[in-house]
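In the previous lecture we treated proteins in isolation. Real proteins rarely work alone, and many bind small molecules. This record shows how such a complex is specified: first the sequence, then the SMILES for NAP.
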Amino acid sequence: MADLFRLDGKVAVVVGGGGGIGKALALGLARQGADVALASRNLQKLEGVAKELQADSEVATKVRAFQMDSTDEASVAAAVKEIVAAMGTVDILVNSQGQNIKRPFENFPLADWETLFDNNVRGVMLCCREFGKVMLEKKSGKIINLSSVAGDRGVPLAGNVGYCGSKAAVSNITRMLAYEWAKHGINVNAIGPSVIFTPMMKNALPPEILAGATALHPIGRVAEPEELIGTCVYLASAASDYMTGQIVYVDGGRSCYA
Ligand SMILES: NC(=O)c1ccc[n+]([C@@H]2O[C@H](COP(=O)([O-])OP(=O)(O)OC[C@H]3O[C@@H](n4cnc5c(N)ncnc54)[C@H](OP(=O)(O)O)[C@@H]3O)[C@@H](O)[C@H]2O)c1
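The predicted 3D structure, ligand included, written as tokens:
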């Protein structure tokens, strides 16, 4: 039964693998036996994270870093080639790149809107399409997008029209791609977190905002990035073979009441 969740012999690409959530998910996948390719713009940072993960006592597989801008078509295509050459194939794609740009809507600069949608939506589209080509050839693969509770409903904090809109796009891209590629043996699902207390969030959230965010969660706290690992491993493994097109909300109960 435990084997159902093992990922031995699989190759996982974690886009945004140097980020707060991506790093935790990469560690979780590597501990389950997958070779892991971390991909994002800042290669130096990724190399540091790769070293750190490789040194983990439960990681016996390869963890490597690759430079890639997920909004740039040529960069994504080049990274696919480089990763396949170095790692052999791609079985699992985790799209954990993204950002939030909060602006009052009446003054939302179009340039910020475009940056937000480029990083959160265009990048997911390009990575699904390009890494997906490797999966289409093999007729198997697992794609896991990072959406959000904010992709399904509003959040009680102004300035988030762009972010919520972009995550709604990620959720519905996930559903429609699942529909389109089910016949090719590719499962496409998303994780929908609420507030994940990444190192960046720890620095950025003023105590009163954190208290307000905490109060929204019936479980009574926000989450640590590691609390997404179980869902990610499940969605990457044979345990979820009959599941596709779903957004799994790992949100401390945030979405169960409003
Ligand atoms: N933290 C939360 O509370 C929370 C809640 C719900 C959903 N999410 C979602 O979860 C995902 C990860 O969030 P996080 O908290 O881990 O954020 P994070 O710590 O800021 O990490 C995001 C990563 O994305 C990479 N990235 C951004 N733009 C990119 C691009 N154009 N090409 C390649 N990589 C790019 C960045 O790496 P480089 O700078 O090296 O490119 C960065 O390491 C995001 O989609 C976010 O919206 C987060």
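Summary for your notes: Helices lie at 20-31, 43-54, 73-87, 110-138, 161-181, 199-204, 207-215, 229-236. The beta strands are 11-15, 35-40, 63-67, 92-95, 141-146, 186-193, 247-250.
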